[in-house]
Amino acid sequence: MPEVIDNKTIFSLLEVSRSIQKTIAERYKSLYWIKAEMNKLNHYSHSGHCYPELVEKREGKVVAEMRSILWKADYHRINDQFRSLLNEPLRDGITILFQAAISYDPLYGFSLKIVDIDPTFVLGELEREKRESIRKLQTEGIFSANRNLRFPRLPKRLAIISVETSKGLSDFFKIIDRNPWKYKFEYTLFPALLQGDKSVPSIIRQLANIAEKTEEFDTVAIIRGGGGDVGLSSYNNYQLAKAIAIFPIPVITGIGHSTNETVSEMVAHQNAITPSELADFLIQKFHQFAIPVDEVQNRIIQASKRLFEQEERLLTQFSQSLSWNAKTVLTTQQHKLTTLMNHLQLFSMQLLKDRQTAINNIQRLMQLADPKQLLKKGFSITKINGHAITQDTAVKAGDEIETTLYEGTVRSKVTR
């Protein structure tokens, strides 16, 4: 009972709490279906109970927040339904439609006791978000922007967004690193979260990092292991899909085994169901480049062989023709040379004969001009001091002179 002190009715905290408890129990007797975002599941493995944090957001701001209780038995039942229908466990960061009792406890305060969660509603929410993201991207005219980029003929340099411990990434590396054709890929890993609410800003942040050095890469690959529709819900996010759609180089994805294509996959240049399939796609691109090159190489080799064979035949023909022509020319020239030698011999003999006749004539002339011949005929030569006298003025009385005869010499003295 309340106390009265100084004309004031005073209630204890327990009395107020019990009054609120009674009022709420009388007012909220039924179970209610409530929609909220489960910010955190808060599952405690030692007890098996969950204490989900529920929020409602409007324009990104939290406008309501409440704690709740999900007992162990109910959690296991609901979690099994999620795994069966969605191929994903109950987890943080999804909008749920749940059935709960509203209660108040004097010690633990106000809470919602969750007894059931509708997994089909989660699928509906995912589909609604997906349709809204598609509508926004199409309205902005960027839905096909990345897909319209020219894909590199040889996608050799890869910027990979993934988790280092991802099994899907490991499968991807095994295929591209151990391909039997020895194709060489260059890749840089940009680690990011790939699931849950934090995956969206994490992937966008790494896309921004890659955008600063796009000249170093041919394409961006977002790689994630398998998962159901709930686990892939972040890939329907409008902001993430927009970042992929407007990225300046082609983005390719291999983000899971789900047959329900996400918006991020739709706007990407190329998407594959699994990381392994994505690796096969890249290797096929190398094939498409290498096979024509090999064919051209073979054609060049064959054409070169044919050209060499043709040139060899022509060379043989030319050699044979040259040999025949050389023999013909040699024979002709040899005949000409023989004729020329004969002519030269005849000409030389006649020239020698003519020259001999000329020499003989000169000899006769020289014999006729020989002073002895003149002296023999009675002529003589008179000299003074070794010089022939041709005029009488060359001597005077008293000079000694010498007269040469055909036979002998006479020395005289001039008297007049």
Describe what you observe in this structure.
Helix 3 runs parallel beside helix 6 (about 240-245), helix 4 runs parallel beside helix 8 (about 275-370) and helix 5 packs parallel to helix 6 (about 240-245). The chain is about 45% helix and about 20% strand. Strands 3-4-5-7-6 form a five-stranded mixed beta barrel. Strands 9-8-10-11-12 form a five-stranded parallel β-sheet, sandwiched between helices. It has a four-stranded antiparallel β-sheet with strand order 14-13-15-16, with no helix packed on it. The N and C termini lie far apart (about 210 Å). A hairpin with a 2-residue loop joins strand 13 and strand 14. The protein has helices spanning about 15-25, 70-85, 120-140, 165-175, 200-210, 240-245, 265, 275-370, 370-375, and strands spanning about 5, 10, 30-40, 55-60, 60-70, 95-105, 110-115, 155-160, 185-190, 220-225, 250-255, 270, 380-385, 385-390, 400-405, 410-415. The chain has three domains: about 5-115, Beta Barrel (OB fold (Dihydrolipoamide Acetyltransferase, E2P)); about 130-290, Rossmann fold, CATH 3.40.50.280; about 370-415, no CATH class. It has nine helices and 16 strands. It comes from Sphingobacterium gobiense. One of its GO terms (cellular component) is cytoplasm.
